[in-house]
Amino acid sequence: MSEICKICGTEKIDGKCPNAEMHLKKMCLNCVSCNIIDNGHVCLNEENLNDAMEKVKANVPSGYEIENLELKPLALKDATKKCKRWILDRDFIMEELLNI
């Protein structure tokens, strides 16, 4: 007997649903690092913040140093984009599933 996907009812191929990518898009909106601040979605991922900080430090002209530098995340332009550091927000997904 073939295995069936419990989300969409499609027959799995080699143990995977052919519609898996459409079940859940790996985007900021369903990432644990994405939060709503001032009516905008912002990324609070520490690794992304550290990358931004390193870019700023790398562009400081010679003869200057940075003191008390603090970066504040801005609202994302498009929270439906993918991120290489995406982590599923399981609580959000469960809430969405329960609201179906």
Name some characteristics of this structure.
100 residues; alpha+beta; two-stranded antiparallel sheet; 8% strand; elongated
Overview of this structure, please?
- The protein is of the alpha+beta class and 100 residues long.
- It has one domain.
- 26% of the residues lie in helices and 8% in strands.
- It contains 3 helices and 2 strands.
- The protein has a two-stranded antiparallel sheet with strand order 1-2.
- A hairpin with a 2-residue loop joins β1 and β2 (40-43).
- The mean pLDDT is 90.
**Biggest sheet overview:** 2 strands, antiparallel
Count of distinct strands: 2
Q: What is the overall number of helices?
A: 3
N-to-C span: 29 Å
Structural class: alpha+beta
Q: What is the multimeric organization of the chains shown? A: single chain
Approximate shape: elongated
Share of helical residues: 25-40%
In the sheet with the most strands, the strands line up as 1-2
The average pLDDT score comes to 90
Ranges where pLDDT stays below 50 over 5 or more residues in a row are: none
When the domains are counted, the total is 1
Layout: helices, strands, pairs:
Elements: H1 20-23, E1 34-37, E2 40-43, H2 46-58, H3 90-98
Antiparallel strand pairs: 1-2
Could you provide a short overview of the structure?
By secondary structure, the chain is an alpha+beta fold.
